[in-house]
What we know:
The complex is a heterodimer of chains A (about 325) and B (about 400).
Chain A: H1 6-17, H2 21-36, H3 41-63, H4 72-87, H5 93-116, H6 120-140, H7 142-145, H8 170-191, H9 194-204, H10 206-211, H11 216-242, H12 252-265, H13 271-290, H14 295-309, H15 313-324
Helix pairs in contact in A: 3-8, 3-11, 3-12, 3-13, 4-5, 4-6, 4-11, 5-6, 5-11, 8-11, 9-11, 12-13, 12-15, 13-14
Chain B: H1 2-19, E1 27-34, H2 41-58, E2 61-62, E3 65-73, H3 79-91, E4 97-100, H4 104-117, E5 121-123, E6 138-140, H5 145-158, E7 163-169, H6 172-185, E8 191-198, H7 206-214, E9 219-223, H8 229-238, E10 247-251, H9 257-263, E11 271-274, H10 283-295, H11 303-322, H12 329-335, E12 339-342, E13 345-349, E14 356-368, E15 371-383
Parallel strand pairs in B: 1-3, 1-4, 4-5, 5-6, 7-8, 7-9, 9-10, 10-11
Antiparallel strand pairs in B: 2-3, 11-14, 12-13, 13-14, 14-15
Amino acid sequence: MQPLGYQTLREHMRARSAWKPAEYLIWLIPIAAWFVLPTHLSLLSQIAIMGLFALSLDLLLGYAGIVSLGHGAFFGLGAYVAGLLGKYGWGEPLSGLAAAALVAGAFGYVSSFLVLRGTDLTRLMVTLGIALMLSEVANKMHWLTGGADGLQGVAIWPVLGLWRFDLYGRVGYAYAVAVLFVLFLLARRIVHSPFGQSLRAIKQNERRMHALGAPVMRRIVAVCTLSAAYAGVAGALLAQTTQFVSLESIGFGKSADVLIMLVLGGTGRLYGALLGALAFMAMRHVLSGMTPQYWEFWLGAMLVLLVMFARGGIFGLIDVLRARLGWARA
Amino acid sequence: MRMTRYATLATLAAGLALGAGARAQDTVKIGLILPMTGPFASTGKQVEAAVRLYIARNGGTAAGKKIEVILKDDTGVQPETTKRLAQELIVQDKVAILAGFGLTPLARATAPVATEAKVPMIVMAAGTSIITNDSPFILRTSFTLAQSASVIAAWAAKSNIKKVFTIVSDFAPGIDGENSFKSGFAPSGGTIVGELRTPLQNPDFAPFLQRAKDAAPDAVFVFLPSGQGAAFMKQFAERGLAGAGIKLIGPGDVTDDDILNGMGQPAIGTITAHFYSAAHDSKENKAYVEAFEKANAGMRPNFMSVGGYDGMHLIYETLKKTGGKVDGMAFVDAAKGMTWTSPRGPVKIEPDTRDITQNIYIRKVENVGGKLYNVEFDKVEMVKDPGKK
């Protein structure tokens, strides 16, 4: 590879970050879904929310290469912040999201210093530990969170004072997709920025980045904070659209689900997170509708098969197929 | 790449953990939401079996309408899923009635949907007093913890039990049970020597029971959701509480008929207060148990099943009263004050609370012909929910 001059480097990065035609098509899907599946909007909004959650993990795992088994902690924290605000008299949705992002981000900032110590396996344990602790705190603070009974009586005001959350989930869906889109744009901008590039470099070779004099620690702290804030917004969206927060939203199950979604879709490409969430949630919905008793078996079987035969997730599979067909990788 | 391997590992681990949730004129659709998988699957199985049995015994039509049941699994631990399923059932499937609801959080999360859609919601299992206050469209055919706990408290106070240690599951019904027991027991001169709450999911009872044993009470009062009793009973025996002369009392959830027979020797002598025992002596119950066991490969009906069976009865009888119309509030109004003889005995839907009033029986676990049963030896007639203010 030829060394690149500054100008050519800038052009190169611009070209990489330019919107491709396929991307426009992808964002037509949620608009089409509104018309095609008007009776499934509450499920679709939960898919959009899980997509945002998976996106937050992708920033951490897919770009910076930091594994986490406790991402549900930030999701749950955001959910409780938005839920509690709604319960105690401040149901304005957008500021609720901002508050959730702030609190989850602050918690992410603090906990990132624990993540800095150690490598992958240690990080798995540390993140898992933090999530378990937070989940137990939420369980024990029954007077505040409602414990295992969940947070009842969350009242969310109309979005922008205009649209009330309805039974059909129309407003919830439009709201969730709009937030997802805006945050996706931001994430896309970030990963194509020099900051994003340096994250990838850290993932590829952390020691070399140290040697180059890059502020590796600061970058990791920054991405942990950002990712936690994203997860917090996702949690807040769930709390606002369902007007309820359960202990489950902060539990290990959420951390596990999101990791499965991300790996299912493919890491380090943003769209993988969205596709993974869509595939996982749709699969779960269809299977549990077909066999209410045994759907977990089939879901588990499909996941094992996918991990075995489709390394790199669904997007990985697509790449392999494209290569076979002789198309260049986009 | 090393990272990928860990990610794969983590995914596998996570995957493993996951294995461990235009109205037709002549049809009435019932959306039945139950935990068919997960830790509370036994409740779902029992209620569903009872619902199917009711339809099999009483025909697929009521007041000239075809009854269609749509079953959904909410996994028992995700209230937002229950709520979403209820929304979908109403919006997509156009169900006229919601039913099921295995646990309190699931029912409470769904209550606003019933209110907004004006759809009657029949709670067939969950047992916290407050549930019926959450929506004017809720009717309950199960029970409340306060009914059973207050009766066992009065019985304990009369039966020379002075010191009691309470262990309850840490969620609303457990806290209801604990409070009703205390408020019934303490004024009659009893002392609570200790109280502990176990987590709702994956509890390990050993340390709790050790603490209880160390406090040397006359009896341990226990409430656990249906299905967790077997593990508790095993630990109760292993920790030697029975050997130390400590009695086991509580609402009947712990000696759930579904799993009672598998508990073996340690369960014998446990005294509970509850609204249903498969051993209840009446011709209605004999026929019910026989038909249930025949239809479900020998599975014994438990108290959850009766909630489902009576829920269907309430729906059928109310439809007959309304001439097959399900008009939200009109349906609920028609159901108010309804009385009938259930396999559990006489029951009534209270007109003001929409909650169930029923006999609470005091039972003792005994070996009857080689099988364990809750044998009723006393009863308090027509107990209203004491948890309503």
